[in-house]
Amino acid sequence: MPSLAPRPDLESLPKYVPGRTILGAIKLASNEVPGGPLPSVRAAITDAMGDVNRYPDSGSQALRERLAADLDVPIDRLAVGCGSVSLCQQLIQAVCGPGDEAMFAWRSFEAYPIVTQVAHAVGVKIPLTDGYGLDLDAMLAAITDRTKLIFVCNPNNPTGTVLHRDEIERFIEAVPEHVLVVLDEAYKEFVTDSEVPDGVEFTRTHNNVAVLRTFSKAYGLAGLRIGYAVASAPIAEALRQVYVAFSVNAIAQVAAIASLDAADELLERCQEIITERERVRNSLVDMGYDIPPTQANFVWFPLGERTVAFSEHMLDRKLIVRPFPGDGARVTIGTPEENDLFLAAAREFLS
Ligand SMILES: *Cc1c(COP(=O)(O)O)cnc(C)c1O
């Protein structure tokens, strides 16, 4: 008799390392925004608590109606998920059979290889350019008959680099129609470069483009787990089919709508982070660090073998950053005071 054991391939599954939390330390590890929920969002969350004896709306109908109106897309092209990480996995489950390929840049969002393998697909990693950006030509060249999906993270996590409208246009035109291009726009609200397109525009003209957005970053709801996808109607329907029933909870749905109501105020908060991002990067470049220009709420330190030493140096000063050993460290932009402490520590690391 065979004995019960988990799938053997899970032993080789890369671990998703969450940003560490240490009492009294400053966490610059998970690309969260420093501000808590606005009073209006807090009130909506408090109100929604009264109904938690009921199951949530598994179709997130009210939120999808709101997003349909805000984005000017038909409601049948929207799917809501338990964070956009969950939607990444649903997309692979929706289009990849066992052994099909999902392609992504590397380094990019660390959840991509994990959700790919969990869904029995094969991850194909394409190295970044020398400027730490996505190498779209290399990605095109790596497409095979088995390629079903390509993640294009814009801005790219963890490097902060962006792709421009003309680059993405050319890429989408060249990708075969049987391959789904997923534009992951988790950091869209922090982009100031006007050449960076709104991915939803591509979904209006191309059935093989999907866009992922999240309420975790600019909208400040990381702890509630909610994001959405805009895609063609059949892909959006497939996303809803593979959805784990009721996984987007009722409080998250209400908080997302309240956050859209408060979008002006929330986006103004992002403006402060953008200002700080520029200040932090300029200071680091002045110190002599190689920091790629960033359009997100974090900066990338391509430190190679010095990455772990850098992270340990920061931990000794109660600053938590996100190291990717052997590659680099990602540091989230915090409040001005937090950033000042980080900059002082970064200066010390050089001496
Ligand atoms: C943070 C992030 C997400 C969103 O995560 P949630 O599951 O919505 O919290 C998606 N993609 C990228 C690239 C991210 O960095």
Automatic annotation (TrEMBL):
CDD domains: AAT_like. Its cofactor is pyridoxal 5'-phosphate. Keywords: Aminotransferase, Antibiotic biosynthesis, Pyridoxal phosphate, Transferase. The modification N6-(pyridoxal phosphate)lysine is found at K217. Gene3D superfamilies: Aspartate Aminotransferase, domain 1 (3.90.1150.10), Type I PLP-dependent aspartate aminotransferase-like (Major domain) (3.40.640.10). GO terms for biological process: antibiotic biosynthetic process; L-histidine biosynthetic process. It comes from the Bacteria. PROSITE patterns: AA_TRANSFER_CLASS_2. One of its GO terms (molecular function) is histidinol-phosphate transaminase activity. It catalyses: an aromatic L-alpha-amino acid + 2-oxoglutarate = an aromatic oxo-acid + L-glutamate. The keyword Nucleus does not apply. InterPro entries: Aminotrans_II_pyridoxalP_BS, Aminotransferase_I/II_large, ArAT, HisP_aminotrans, HistidinolP_aminotransfase, PyrdxlP-dep_Trfase, PyrdxlP-dep_Trfase_major, PyrdxlP-dep_Trfase_small. Residues 26-343 form the Aminotransferase class I/classII large domain. Its EC number is 2.6.1.57. It is an enzyme of class 2 (transferase). Homodimer. Belongs to the class-II pyridoxal-phosphate-dependent aminotransferase family. Aminotransferase that catalyzes the conversion of aromatic amino acids and 2-oxoglutarate into corresponding aromatic oxo acids and L-glutamate. NCBIfam families: hisC (TIGR01141), PRK03321.1 (NF002878). This is Aromatic amino acid aminotransferase.
